[in-house]
Automatic annotation (TrEMBL):
PANTHER family assigned to the protein according to its UniProt record, in alphabetical order: DYNEIN REGULATORY COMPLEX PROTEIN 10 (PTHR31598:SF1), IQ DOMAIN-CONTAINING PROTEIN D (PTHR31598)
Cellular location(s): Cytoplasm, Cytoskeleton, Flagellum axoneme
Database matches in InterPro entries: DRC10 (IPR042815)
Function noted in UniProt: Component of the nexin-dynein regulatory complex (N-DRC), a key regulator of ciliary/flagellar motility which maintains the alignment and integrity of the distal axoneme and regulates microtubule sliding in motile axonemes.
Species this chain originates from: Campylorhamphus procurvoides
Coiled coil: 165-250
Protein name: Dynein regulatory complex protein 10
Superkingdom per UniProt: Eukaryota
Family: Belongs to the DRC10 family.
Keywords: Cell projection, Cilium, Coiled coil, Cytoplasm, Cytoskeleton, Flagellum
Length: 276
């Protein structure tokens, strides 16, 4: 077996640093930074939802209220005007309309930011397809969390965290080496097992072949014995038949002799009777 790498001691402070940060800013400056980041994230999310909301204004009008609904209608009107001016040589008018469109968007976003519950509700209600904007928003959220962690982490905690991460990296490396060695052992054991199985398979195959050959030889021997038995039986029958024929012939010969003797005896008897 492989030696187990020495277990690194995990500093409690470092573990706390790795846990999700408690979002409780401890200063006005921190709160201001987080507010700006959170508002930016909300603006990005709502900007992505606005085209979908405008496309279903009748559905969301009651939820949005008259002010936001009116602003969205005006924004849609400006957006259509800018679309019509695309490719137009009237650059000044086009730039003015684009500026109005940007101002309209900022105004709508301010209205949304003033109503956090509405923003949360719209995030659940409005269904949009995934787009590259999602990646950007996710990256910005990660930036916000990273910034908060940096703000809330003291230099001593940061140093302890780095030390802990180095220890973790070392442990990971040691574990990788252990896993590699164990994998090599496992591969060797599997190979040995495979060779043993192959060897046993060959033995079984050889035994099977031997048994088949024995069965064939036994069958051949039985057939030969049967043939020899039949041959001997035929020879015995033939010899018996020949003996019977000879006996029959001998019987007939003796019967003829007996008949001749009887006749001869009778003739002699007649002669004797005549002499008397």
């Amino acid at each position: 077996g492989m030696a187990t790498p020495e277990k690194a001691v995990t500093p409690i402070g470092a573990m706390k640093l790795l846990e999700p940060c408690q979002l409780k800013p401890d200063s006005m400056e921190t709160e201001r930074i987080l507010t700006v980041l959170d508002e930016t994230i909300t603006k990005l999310e709502m900007t992505r939802l606005i085209p979908r909301i405008i496309g279903s204004l009748e559905r969301f009008a009651r939820m949005l209220g008259p002010e936001i609904t009116g602003s969205l209608l005006e924004h849609q009107k400006l957006s259509n005007e800018v679309q019509h001016l695309l490719g137009s040589p009237r650059e000044e008018i086009k730039r003015a309309k684009e500026q109005c469109l940007k101002c309209s968007l900022r105004h709508i976003l301010r209205l949304f930011l003033a109503n956090p519950l509405l923003c949360q509700g719209l995030k659940y209600e409005v269904q949009v397809r995934r787009s590259p904007a999602d990646v950007f928003i996710k990256a910005f959220v990660e930036l916000r969390d990273f910034t908060l962690e940096k703000i809330l982490t003291s230099p001593a905690e940061e140093e302890e965290k780095i030390k802990f991460m180095e220890e973790m990296s070392l442990r990971v490396e040691q574990n990788k080496e252990t896993i590699t060695a164990l994998q090599a052992e496992l591969a060797a054991a599997i190979q040995t097992r495979k060779e043993e199985v192959d060897k046993k398979d060959k033995m079984i195959e050889d035994l099977k072949t031997t048994m088949e050959n024995l069965a064939k030889d036994c069958k051949a021997d039985i057939q030969q014995m049967q043939q020899e038995g039949k041959k001997q039986q035929k020879e015995k029958v033939k010899a018996s038949q020949e003996m019977c024929a000879r006996l029959q012939e001998d019987i007939q010969h003796r019967r003829a002799q007996f008949t001749a003797l009887v006749l001869e005896h009778r003739a002699s008897e007649l002669v004797l009777r005549k002499v008397k």
